[in-house]
Amino acid sequence: MLVDADNLDPARLRLVAAELHDAGPEVRVVVAGHPARLAAVRWPEHAVVVEASGWQHADVTLAAAYQPDDGPLVLVSGDGDFALLAQRHEGPVLVVAPEAGRSARYRSTGAVLDLVHEGPQRLRDFLAAEPG
User: Fold this and answer.
1) Among 87, 59, 92, 50, which residue's Cα sits nearest to residue 74?
2) Distance of CA 43 to the CA centre of its chain
3) How many Cβ atoms are within 10 Å of 104's Cβ, its own excluded?
4) Are the CB atoms for 123 and 74 separated by under 8 Å?
5) Of the listed ranges 40-44, 77-81, 119-123, the one predicted with least confidence
């Protein structure tokens, strides 16, 4: 799971973090963003949290953390910066984004979720069926 903390509001990030606490350490999580945004959320102990300030630094950090394979991938981002990665990933992809952040490129992956409007069940099911 790659979490771009700079592109979601703290309330949405807290919803994601709550699900990660329940998912357990078998789910690989990398979170990057501005230190103030990261501090607004209690991330699970197993998450790799990287302070990345400045334009696109969080994106670069997350791109470097990406491991191409055919396993499951959860992308948490409010913009379309990772849409191409989602489209090219060989395994199943779930994009967690606010309604306004659902670019057409993300929608083409077929699995986009807004936790605020749709609830966490699809994320829970995805993590339970395909941890990683």
Assistant:
1) 92
2) 13
3) 8
4) yes
5) 77-81
Amino acid 32: pLDDT: 96
Among 34, 33, 29, smallest CA distance to 17 is for 29
pTM: 0.89
- The Cα 53–Cα 6 span in angstroms is 9
d(CA 51, CA 33): 5
Tell me the two tokens of residue 9: 């509001």
- So where are the chain's domains? 2-129
What one-letter code names the amino acid at 64? A
**In the CATH scheme, what is the code of domain 2-129?**
3.40.50
How many other CB atoms are there within 10 angstroms of residue 25's CB atom?
12
**If we measure between CA atoms, which residue out of 28, 61, 56, 60 comes closest to residue 44?**
28
Residue 52's pLDDT band, with cuts at 50, 70 and 90, is: very high
- What is the radius of gyration, based on Cα positions, of the chain? 13
